[in-house]
Specification:
binds glyceraldehyde-3-phosphate; alpha/beta; single chain; eight-stranded parallel beta sheet; binds zinc ion
Length: 284
């Protein structure tokens, strides 16, 4: 069924695993991620950035596509459609009214009081509709669509506690050294801060920039309250590689199903690997 993230993430925290957020880019990504979740008997979060939604047609197109695929594939595991890095109250409201079951309001680059104000407004509307809310503090490095960062800023534990208490968000993404896109060398995540934030915030934590984080760090993050891990680049790399290999082997090929099919298989295999690594398999 289509659900919010709230119960999903509470269960993940209680049972010591993380639910993957896998970003949608097109039909094949959606198919692959839903198939992987059903086969693994895993809950799943479909992440949709504003840029990806624009590419696919809009929020309504995304919701209709996901709902139809869930029916055609007889999906029984819990699925959330989540706005990734919502840039404004208006954008979150649009997603909620289109049928998204979860939103992220990313006001982390605004002054703290403004972040609180915007996030509070989003929570009010979202909770009225049974929709969950994720907020962010600090700055995740790298670039994803419209979200560009010059450097990395660690979230402040005091602000994290205050943001959760004053806004009523359902989960929190404290930036602690993670990066969108590939890492240059090993990631250096602030686990000391993560532990403190986990103790003080009292909501499940979210880890952005999941691509390239080694398994021992994933496990450490889960042990410090991380219940959701976002992955996009790794699936994009896997799908691009499959397209390149297919077209290199058969340069005369033109039927999109012949090269996007292998891309879809590659995404599915990658997602299954992540679900096993995050421990969400057989937790639906
Ligand atoms: O919001 C989406 C994620 O944080 C994706 O990060 O592309 O580095 O896996 P990634
Ligand atoms: Zn992110």
């Amino acid at each position: 069924p289509l659900v919010s993230m709230t119960e999903m993430l509470k269960k993940a925290n209680a049972e010591g695993y993380a639910v993957g957020q896998f970003n949608l880019n097109n039909l094949e990504f959606t198919q692959a991620i839903l198939q992987a979740a059903q086969e693994e008997n895993s809950p799943v979060i479909l992440g949709v950035s504003e840029g990806a939604a624009r590419y696919m047609g809009g929020f309504k197109t995304v919701v209709a596509m996901v709902k139809a695929l869930m029916e055609d594939y007889s999906i029984t595991v819990p699925v959330a459609i989540h706005l990734d890095h919502g840039s404004s109250f208006e954008s979150c409201a649009k997603a909620i009214h289109a049928g998204f079951t979860s939103v992220m309001i990313d006001a982390s680059h605004h002054p703290f009081e403004e972040n609180i104000e915007t996030t509070t407004k989003v929570v009010e509307l979202a909770h009225f509709h049974g929709v969950s809310v994720e907020a962010e503090l600090g700055v995740v490095g790298g670039q994803e669509d419209d979200v560009v960062a010059e450097g990395v800023i660690y979230a402040d534990p005091n602000e994290c506690e205050e943001l959760v208490k004053r806004t009523g968000i359902d989960c929190l993404a404290p930036a602690l050294g993670s990066v969108h896109g590939p890492y240059k060398g090993e990631p250096n995540l602030g686990f000391k801060e993560m532990e403190e934030i986990n103790n003080r915030a009292g909501v499940p934590l979210v880890l952005h920039g999941g691509t390239g984080i080694p398994t021992h760090d994933i496990q450490k993050a889960i042990s410090f309250g991380t219940a959701k891990i976002n992955v996009n680049t790794e699936n994009q790399i896997a799908s691009a590689k499959a397209v390149r290999e297919t077209l290199a082997a058969k340069p005369e090929e033109y039927d999109p199903r012949k090269y996007l099919g292998p891309a879809r298989d590659a995404i599915k295999a990658t997602v299954i690997g992540k679900m096993r690594e995050f421990g969400s398999s057989n937790k639906a």
